[in-house]
Write a structure and sequence with these properties.
about 220 residues, alpha/beta, Rossmann fold, five-stranded parallel beta sheet, two-stranded antiparallel ribbon, 7 strands, globular
Length: about 220
C-alpha cells in the first residue's frame, strides 16, 4: 500500500500515520523527521533548513524531492510506504509523480484530514516533543503517561519545539493554506483523494480512513 497523508499542522497526521503503518506494515516517511535529523546532525542542509523551519517556512522543493527520492530507494519502501505531510506544494506533487514514474509505481490512496483552524491552534500550542527520541505528545489529547516523562525512552523533560510556539503556528498555518491546500484541487480528478473529518475520536478517524482505503487494498 502506497499512501499520501495530507493535512494542516496539528490535524493528527502523526497518530494516524503510526496506526496505518502498523496496519499495512509499511515505513512511515516524514520529510519533517528527515529534515530534523539533518538539523541534529548539523549537515549543510540541516543548517539551511533550521533557519526556515524555526519560522514555519518551507524548505525549497528541489531539496525535499531529492531527500524523498533517496528515501524511497531504500529496501523497506519497495513494497509500500506512507508519505506523511508530503507533498506540500504543487511542484512537489508534480515531482513525486515523476519520481514514482521513474520507479514504475503509483500511489494507491490520498488521505486529507481536515480540522477547524481554531482547534488546530489549541492543539499545536499544547504539543510537546521528547528531545532524546523525538516522540511527540499533546498535553490535552495525548499526554505522556507520567507528566513530563517520555513513554518511549523514559527521558525527563519534554520540550516545545520552536515551530509549535504561537507566532510560528500562525505562520505555519498560513503557509499551509497558501501552498498545500491547493493540492486538494490537484488530486480530486485522480479519484484517489479521500477527505476525512479529523475532529473526533482517534479510533473513529482511523476507521473512516480504513473505509476510504479499503477499495485499494
Amino acid at each position: 500500500m502506497r499512501i499520501i497523508l495530507l493535512g494542516a499542522p496539528g490535524v493528527g497526521k502523526g497518530t494516524q500515520s503510526k496506526m496505518l503503518c502498523e496496519h499495512y506494515a509499511i515505513p512511515h516517511i516524514s520529510t519533517g523527521d528527515i529534515l530534523r535529523q539533518h538539523v541534529q546532525d548539523k549537515t549543510e542542509l540541516g543548517r539551511k533548513a533550521e533557519a526556515l523551519m524555526s519560522k514555519g517556512q518551507l524548505v525549497p522543493d528541489d531539496l525535499i524531492l531529492a531527500l524523498v527520492e533517496d528515501r524511497l530507494s531504500e529496501e523497506d519502501a519497495a513494497a509500500g510506504f506512507l508519505l506523511d505531510g508530503f507533498p506540500r506544494t504543487l511542484p512537489q506533487a508534480v515531482g513525486i509523480d515523476a519520481i514514482l514514474g521513474r520507479h514504475d509505481t503509483a500511489i494507491d490512496g490520498i488521505i486529507a484530514i481536515d480540522v477547524d483552524q481554531k482547534v488546530l491552534q489549541s492543539r499545536l500550542v499544547a504539543r510537546r516533543s521528547c528531545p532524546q527520541c523525538g516522540t511527540v505528545y499533546n498535553l490535552v489529547i495525548a499526554p505522556p503517561k507520567v507528566n513530563d516523562i517520555c513513554d518511549v525512552c523514559g527521558h525527563k523533560g519534554l520540550v516545545q519545539r520552536d515551530d509549535d510556539k504561537p507566532a510560528t503556528i500562525r505562520e505555519r498555518l498560513e503557509v499551509y493554506h497558501q501552498h498545500t491546500a491547493p493540492l486538494l484541487s490537484y488530486y480530486r480528478p485522480s479519484g484517489l483523494l479521500h477527505e476525512i473529518d479529523g475532529d473526533g475520536n482517534v479510533d473513529e478517524i482511523f476507521q473512516s480512513i480504513m473505509a476510504a482505503l479499503s477499495p485499494a487494498e
